[in-house]
Amino acid sequence: MIHSLFLINSSGDIFLEKHWKSVVSRSVCDYFFEAQERATEAENVPPVISTPHHYLLSVYRHKIFFVAVIQTEVPPLFVIEFLHRVVDTFQDYFGVCSEPVIKDNVVVVYEVLEEMLDNGFPLATESNILKELIKPPTILRTVVNTITGSTNVGDQLPTGQLSVVPWRRTGVKYTNNEAYFDVIEEIDAIIDKSGSTITAEIQGVIDACVKLTGMPDLTLSFMNPRLLDDVSFHPCVRFKRWESERILSFIPPDGNFRLLSYHVSAQNLVAIPVYVKHNISFRDSSSLGRFEITVGPKQTMGKTIEGVTLSSQMPRGVLNMSLTPSQGTHTFDPVTKVGE
Amino acid sequence: MTDSKYFTTTKKGEIFELKAELNSDKKEKKKEAVKKVIASMTVGKDVSALFPDVVNCMQTDNLELKKLVYLYLMNYAKSQPDMAIMAVNTFVKDCEDPNPLIRALAVRTMGCIRVDKITEYLCEPLRKCLKDEDPYVRKTAAVCVAKLHDINAQLVEDQGFLDTLKDLISDSNPMVVANAVAALSEIAESHPSSNLLDLNPQSINKLLTALNECTEWGQIFILDCLANYTPKDDREAQSICERVTPRLSHANSAVVLSAVKVLMKFMEMLSKDLDYYGTLLKKLAPPLVTLLSAEPELQYVALRNINLIVQKRPEILKHEMKVFFVKYNDPIYVKLEKLDIMIRLASQANIAQVLAELKEYATEVDVDFVRKAVRAIGRCAIKVEQSAERCVSTLLDLIQTKVNYVVQEAIVVIKDIFRKYPNKYESVIATLCENLDSLDEPEARAAMIWIVGEYAERIDNADELLESFLEGFHDESTQVQLQLLTAIVKLFLKKPTETQELVQQVLSLATQDSDNPDLRDRGYIYWRLLSTDPVAAKEVVLAEKPLISEETDLIEPTLLDELICYIGTLASVYHKPPSAFVEGGRGVVHKSLPPRTASSESTESPETAPAGAPPGEQLDVIPTQGDLLGDLLNLDLGPPVSGPPLATSSVQMGAVDLLGSGLDSLIGTPNFVSPPATAVPANLGAPMGSGLSDLFDLASGVGTLSGSYVAPKAVWLPAMKAKGLEISGTFTRQVGSISMDLQLTNKALQVMTDFAIQFNRNSFGLAPAAPLQVHAPLSPNQTVEISLPLNTVGSVMKMEPLNNLQVAVKNNIDVFYFSTLYPLHILFVEDGKMDRQMFLATWKDIPNENEAQFQIRDCPLNAAVPEVPSTGGVPARVPGLRDHPQELRPHPASAPAFHQPRRGAPWEVAAPPSPGRGRARLLAPTGFPGPDSRACPGPRDTPVLENPLFPLLLMFSVR
Questions:
Q1: Whole-prediction pTM value?
Q2: For residues B926 and B936, is the Cβ–Cβ distance under 8 A?
Q3: Residue-wise pLDDT tens digits, B176-235
Q4: Domain residues for A211?
Q5: How far is CA A167 from the centre of its chain?
Q6: What is the CATH number of the domain that holds A304?
Q7: Which of B6, B42, B298 is the best substitution to test chain A (most A C-beta atoms within 10 A)?
Q8: Cα–Cα distance between B900 and B778 in angstroms, integer?
Q9: Structural domain count of chain A
């Protein structure tokens, strides 16, 4: 199981370590640094590194490497998934997940990590439960704590922990009952020179923010559920009901959560809301070239398109570019070679 | 106010200051101090000196403070075991606390304190907690058993905690079940022999029920545990599959992959005719595709596993090619994995798409990736025959880009394409040759040389090309040297007239100037082949080669089956069985797929499939770098074998066996038939065998005789020294007569006539038996071959070295002198057999001073002569030749033989097959000036003697 966790910033300093079993010397990270040096970019550090006695599994998020040390045969996905969960939890607790924030809240971080894993076994990873055990630091609470001397550690066993709905605590009360659902879709498309779509598929998620009193049982139905190729649900969704009726039926967790993620494959004709045309030309005998992209809205059944950003990864050979947009602002970062 | 303030104390005496604060009366101050201590701990600062002070803070109602102290304890208890005892009382007390949270916390922390003395006190509270009414405490206690087991396994067994843990599998609360399973799995992993997770249908049922209700992590543990179970029939397998399938829709990718593992394993048991089987296949694809939209690290692990799944059941993802297309922003490790899977999925249906993609990739910036992409194009060509043409033209396009590494990779893969489709795409060779100069990697050079050699007859300037490579022969890597040798020999066999010089050059480079035994041996083999029987050489070297097969670097089926059982684990990431890399000491149980139960499926199940598969299948896989050498050797030697088909293993062993059988023929016992002798290609027969036997001798630079064996012609008199006359030649012995085969070449501009030859006096009285007869005048650039018969009646003079021969050749221009060494074997009679009595009599005739006796040490007898049971010292008595023991070179046809060592051992002895004693005899001419002139007996007593030769007696005894 997970032995230890090291947090390493992009300059290669270990700024936090946590051990769940016996202490593993931080020298084990040298192997990681070696791999880091070999990889030209931080993104390219291999996620699984083997050392003579341990295995290092790492994820890179928010410019921090989260390196887990394991010693026995453990499903690597389990470890990586857990690491991502750790990051999500930090983000949930502190708003952002960055080195200064983690350092500022080091005790809370330590307590949270201790609650999340016991002897390498995940203990409580649901944000709701964690927040009951260890309250996230807010300015108000800090003030209250200093005055009253109370702590931000819950002294009651989280109620959800053992119920059949572990994701929801009992006794939730709101004066305004509200629920929001965000549908976020990411379209992966390849568009040829003439502007016609070669392939396009959608990776979508439904994120929800539910603030409802008591134990609400919700159902959500889709116009055309057959479109969804592969879905993965939050544990709260009743799978049987989806299988038989294609209806989402669930008791939601309290607060923010991801209800489902889905995939619409290329077989279904994916309509892209914009059209894109591009043209690249190089002038002979000079190192200059011209790259034009035209983006415009397609018919979208009356919906408007907002916040269009265009970013383009330039090859390493590109030194600089002068951008002339017909609309909006533009930047070019010569380091990452991304023009926006 | 943030926690960062805890880091800011940098004053001197920090520890001291903290100590004071910890002992303060104020709760607030205490808590702040502990927080400071914890903060220092997290960054790796040593604050263990504060141990007693921190432990003092443990007795508190404040839960946060308690937790912080516990955190500290876990870290430092190990370093202060005596102090840690102080904490025990508090732990025991906390385990009785009415608040389940505190009970659980206490038992959890105690388990983390890895101090033996504490563990003793832990047992009682733990036992209580395992039976606690609150499931939260029970599930914590379950994990604690695993912790305790890690510290003191014996204690856990003695206390009966394992049985309690097993009971927890039937607990009413799914979370407790999951944790119990996880704990048991971990304990079982360190003790593979213990039968802890003894699963039966009842417990499986409980697990499946718990599966639906427990947390995602618990699901992973349960699924992994399920994967170890082997259902008793296909019905049970199906019902488990049905209940596991919903897990494929879980948001946690680890759950998905664990579910995939269970399904992949149990599918093995399902009959393919079942509708359910098809449904299951269909259900497996979407979740796998979805895994690829996760974070890159997850993608990587998923892709490694998909790689296995695609090999095992390609049908699952055959329509999903597009999802494996590389995205521009994928990390490199993801890109490489995707590429690999793309090739595995490539088929006739999607090849156009794949090729278009690969071509794009080949113009990317990342060198590794581009290389792999180019290689992938080649693999596509080999895999999908219909696409070969397109692949080749794509590769040509890429070569036109002139990007160095692209060109080199392209040439390497084109070589493979040629091997798969011989005589089909030769038109591209011209393009390849254009890029000859830019090749700087050994692999690309070797590939190019191979192509030139293979298609030498179609490349006009093949000899020039190869010659250009030959210039820097010694600087090339072995791979290139070997290829160059083979290619030039091929070229020579195809265009013998123009390339003789070239082949001589390369053979001498390979055999004389190289330290590499492989290169040398291959050089000798070719040399012998060429000089013995050029036709046979042609058949051997230019034989039709087996086509390489389409599937490359597949994982071996049994390993694949094992790895399928490890989907989702580290083993699947490394594509190695866990036994290959898991820390030693912990045994690993080998897992295997369950056999399919339906008998109708038997032919399709992997267990029985290999029986029907052609045995040569695995041989055809493209060899890796390391195999190249052995492979080429086999390719060149294997095919011409007629008669009984060779066993695969004997082909693999080719080189070794040939040497072995060569030795056998050298020993020449008629009743001895060695089994590996079958490896000698039948149509090559004896010359081949004995030719190889001479490999041993050649190391000394001079060949020996065996029947029709003739050493290759060497240039005796270069044209430069003889005003345009070049003489090369060799000595042969055929049916009792010695002859000198001469080749005279006129490299001058004028005609040469009036040839005559004369020998100086020499050790064995060699003299021409007939005048040198060159019938017609030798016009410029003409060559004549003359066989000059010799006898041993000439006058004798001891030469240094013994077999030195000084020759004078006269023609109309001038008289030229040269000297050469003749192989002693041409002097030996074919029938050297002697009657025992006569031998002893002759032996006695030789004065004792003429007897040389020496011990042969460290001779590797058992390798060369399997019949000699022991490898002892072999004393050899060599009378008459005391001063020249190293010149001993008996006729291979007469039983025992000395050999100059190839390397290492001072002597190699081939003894007769009967253990014990053997003898050998050398015949030398009369008047041989031995160390003592009295030692030269006349020909009086040996009927086998030819002319006035004197006997040389050898006696061996083998201990």
A1: 0.64
A2: yes
A3: 888 888 888 888 877 766 666 677 788 888 888 888 778 888 888 888 888 888 888 888
A4: 178-264
A5: 19
A6: 2.60.40.1170
A7: B42
A8: 41
A9: 3
